Amino acid sequence: MLRTLDINFCSSLVLRFVKGQFHEYQESTIGAAFLTQTICLDDTTVKFEIWDTAGQERYHSLAPMYYRGAQAAIVVYDITNQESFAKAKNWVKELQRQASPNIVIALAGNKADLASKRVVEYEEAQAYAEDNGLLFMETSAKSSMNVNDIFLAIAKKLPRSEAGGGPAGRGHGGVNIAEENPQSARKSCCS
Fold first, then answer.
1. Max Cα-Cα span within the chain
2. Which of 3, 39, 113, 151 has its CA 20 to 30 A from that of 144?
């Protein structure tokens, strides 16, 4: 199982990925929410264990127990809000300093459906991501643009034989990418 941590404004992104839903007025995550989603990648199945911490300052001190041992993190900012991009950069620095050295970090510029109100330029965010070795995509939880793609990109970048722990001893964590024979793959999540 792959434990993924989502930080900053991402409750809508996670809800779209896991349940295919979008709520215009999504309430902020209090503390952390836990969701799972299984996807197929070629001949393997990847199960994401997602801890949505929403990046709220009042819960900042709890974040390390969720990202410790995580194999991936998605740091999300709002393309219509420069301050959210600055906060995302701070989260990236923290993850680079304190998370696992092999963590895959993705930067998601959410609300791409509001491109006419953009204040964070695509090129600026892309250059930042390249300079810091991050995956980068602009997404829209509302229209579902690139939501599944960012999780697929993370799954492709992960080593296939990871093992790890869940936050504060919860769950197994790690990456469980099960090889499947072609018949069972068609009957599982890929059908």
1. 49
2. 3
C-alpha 43: how far from chain center: 22
Distance CA 150, CA 106 (A): 8
Q: Is 109 helix (H, G, I), strand (E, B) or coil?
A: strand
> pLDDT (tens digit, 9 = 90+) per residue, 45-94?
888 888 776 555 655 666 666 677 788 889 999 999 999 999 999 999 99
- The vertex-61 CA angle with 166 and 64, nearest 5°, equals 30
Residue pair 22/145 in contact (Cβ under 8 Å)? The answer is no
User: Looking at residue 191, what is its pLDDT?
Assistant: 42
Q: If DSSP codes are grouped into helix, strand and coil, which group holds residue 149?
A: helix
130: number of Cβ within 10 Å: 10
pLDDT in tens, 8-23: 335 787 888 887 767 6
Strands annotated E in the chain: 2-7, 33-41, 44-52, 72-78, 104-110, 135-138, 177-179
d(CA 50, CA 71): 11
